[in-house]
Sequence to fold (598 residues):
Amino acid sequence: MRKSVFFRRVLAILLLALLLWALLTAVLYSFLSRPVFMRIKAREMQPKAEMVATRAAASFLIDDVFFDSILLSSQELFNAWIFVMDGLSGDVRNASLPATESEARPVILEQIKKNNDRLLSGDFNSLWFTARLPKDGGSSEAFFIGVPIRVSFGRQDSVVGTVFFVSSMDEMNAGFHSINIALIFSSLIVLVLMVLPVWFITARLIRPLRQTRDVALAIAHGDFSIRADAGQVGEIGELAGIMNDLADKLSASIADLTLERNRLRQILAGMSDGLLAIDHNGTITSANPALLDLMGLDALPPTGSRLAEQPALMELSEPLMQVVTQKIDTEQTLSRHNRVLAVQMSPLCEPDGPAAGAVALIRDITEAERLEQTRRDYVANVSHELRTPLTAIRALVEPMRDGLVQAENDRQRYYGIILAEIVRLSRLINDMLELSRLQAGSLVMQLRDFELGSLLEDISDRFRLQAEDQQITLGWPENLSALPIVHANLDRVEQVLIILLDNAFKYTPSGGSIGLQVVWDDHTVAISVADTGIGIHPADVDAVFDRFYKADKAHQQPGTGLGLAIARELLRQMGQDITVTSQLGKGSTFTFTLARGG
Ligand code: ADP
Fold:
């Protein structure tokens, strides 16, 4: 409380007001009380003077010894000197003045003469005044009161002289001074006594104001928990109330803003795209964690640092500053660590105002680029695959139309080739449709338990015959009934087996061998088709499951290049996988898994 300037000022003003009040009371008292005292003195002395005047009237007619003795003893009787003036002769009779006062007599007489005429006129019953009389080399104040001496002649009154009482004011002035001093002293005592109550009242008055100040200070330091006492009536209480209200509203607004900021931070942190924002000076204002990976940074650039001074991001500085100055969206691509990045840059600005900064959104488009490339390859592959049989058909049909093929057996041979090409074409189209249906997910794969042994039994005859035809040794599981029950789609598993076995026969020369093996554990059954065929080059192993992939780049081999892609897609839809191991010139083994049923 001691530090409060406001408190000290209010306290000082109140104490000063008290002091002024005491001083003014003393001064006003000394000015106003004097005439009152004089009037009291006049009222006290006037009857005495009138009584002496009545006596003096008689003494004018006959010698009055008693009156003379009154004059002589006037100081003792009335505490005043009496001066009696004869109105006709102008003689003055007076009480004898002590030797010490004798020098005052001429001054007294002068004062009496000055005022005598007014009394003699009969218009006044009394008149009083003060005058300074010489005394002991100095002067002292004296009080004069005069009354007329009236004598009645028949019915008429006439003034025949005057009586003046002259008394020293010393006593009255001394009393007056002591009252003044007592008054000043009592005022000072009141002042001292009032210091504590005034202190407490001021402190009470100031407390809500101090609290209000504390609330404002706390708000300035970000603390919204402090509240002022708004209970006081009047402006100070209202101010405290308003400040409390302000603290409530600010606290709520800041909580909202913090929530919003945290949400935004979370969104930025959770974004897979990189975000980099700068202000109009090129200072970084925001950067999200995705930027680390995308731009290959070790640490995020600190907010407040200059973009142009960040070596890893320097190349974005110039285009971003251009976006700030030109206020137009720009897009560019960057290459980083075998990745293709698309950078979308936009200005941050109000529609009419200058740009306050710019933001760059960095997206990894490597996969999109790859997909685009795949799409292009697909179209090229499809066109190529379609064109090959069509070109062959055209090359045969045109000479036949022009009548160039005359021999019947040639014609029959041509028809045979055309039919084979058409069959190839329709197989290709069927495979393409099958694969796209599978990849579109439009086929619903119903899974159920069935015996793997009976499926292998069903297809074994067909491949045994083919093996005999191609002089290939076919190895088939011995005890088919011992094979486990699997949970899958029977038709689709058959389709996969046929693709793999067809391929094995396709790529295994006569004299080779093909073997089908089944192994299983509690959950999974693994089926392998192994051959001793041409094998696959290590560089091609990973690609054989891709669409239209053919190890034979000249595409001379029969087949569409879609079989393995279809097989992998079918297994994927059943929740299973297919792998291959191969050695060029030695053979290949394709293994796929199925879930155990039962
Ligand atoms: P295709 O109809 O051409 O056989 P696939 O998708 O079934 O198409 O096979 C893709 C490619 O994988 C084939 O062109 C072939 O080069 C290779 N391939 C598939 N199976 C074998 C195998 N058993 N031995 C050697 N190469 C194989």
